Amino acid sequence: MMISMLCPALIVLICFLSDEIGFIQCPEARYNRSPIVLLENKLGVESWCVKFLLPYVHNKLLLYRQRKHWLDREALVDITCTLLLLNPDFTTAWNVRKELLQCGALSPERDLYLGKLTLTKFPKSPETWIHRRWVLQQILNRFPAVGHHKILLRREAEVEVADAEITQHANDHLAQIILQEMMVCADAASRYPSNYNAWSHRIWVLRHMAQGNSKVFHDELSSLRLWVSMHVSDHSGFHYRQFLLKELITDLNLGPELWSNSGPQKQASSSPDSSYLVDQLFYQEMEFCSDLILSFPGHEALWSHRRHVFYLWHQWKEHHRDCSSSRDSQLKHLSELEDQGRSCLSRHGHGSVLMEVDLVSLEDPEEEKKLRGVLPPGVLNLPAEHLFVSSLLDSCCSHEQRSLALAYRKWLDMVIGVQS
């Protein structure tokens, strides 16, 4: 019983000095020493004490929730911390910490640190990820209140300077939180293959904390190349890259709801510059996928990713073609109106009066594309994909690689070929 009373406080004292937790396999207490070990910032708990410690803190918390036993706030922090380090899927403990955080007895940063430490031992714990999102939402709710500081200042110049400093501080703090969350998610994804909860949390963070910030999405797409190259069988990592591509394409096309499971949903205006950038994104992703397929033959996740990226490109190209057709019809209508204007001017003796600005709409769109350096047509298309598959089959020796390549070619014919 003495160990049950001492361990909670001891774990709480040590856990915020460590960056990882684990259990030391030890069926029984062989020595008269503490079952808690801290070595090089790694926290270890001997397994024999868990069967005593976990029921103790569990029952104590339940008695508190049933109002049969009183605990002060500091004791609640210790009890819930110990319980969640041993069993992070105990929802009641997380709910108690929510209450402590709302009343100011617990800081959001400390709760995020506990979740980070818990995920080193239980990287797929759904309750931990859910609570982590709740804490982040509480932090986000503070940011809109920045403007309330205006009433404390009198002169207009002081207001502008103060708001700029406050906004910059908030942006820096938000960027630091996003970076920390990306590191936590990457660590959890490395500890548990195809960790759906970790990748879903990563998507949530970008959608709620970096929406509209293209640089963050570009950086994520670039930094993730190394990770997926080292985890070529992890479907979740490639699904995350597909999410990043969709978000970047939507942002470039200025259409917040451009993509869904069924394709383009909303007409969006795309300039030649944005079309070039989208082409570049798809081309680079397909080249990256080709390199991985050739370097690591026989992995289904790579072929599945290639199929999804090419289908996204095909959808975007069809949508872009429809937008171009609509724009061409508008230009044709403007040209007809211009001809009518010329004839009207000639009837009134002013045929030589033509403003230079009117000539801007008469430029050849193809010449404009050449000047802007758009990728030549045919870099990504159905014949090029067939050529890639054929060349791979000619030099392939792996049975798994041949099966996946043939399945991909069949998909190209039955899905893309029919829609083209």
UniProtKB/TrEMBL annotation:
The keyword Repeat applies. GO terms for molecular function: protein prenyltransferase activity. Gene3D superfamilies: Protein prenylyltransferase (1.25.40.120). PROSITE patterns: PFTA (PS51147). Residues 1-22 form the signal peptide. GO terms for cellular component: cytoplasm. InterPro entries: Prenyl_trans_a. Keywords: Prenyltransferase, Repeat, Signal, Transferase. Belongs to the protein prenyltransferase subunit alpha family. This is Protein prenyltransferase alpha subunit repeat containing 1. It comes from Nothobranchius furzeri (Turquoise killifish). The lineage of its organism: Eukaryota, Metazoa, Chordata, Craniata, Vertebrata.
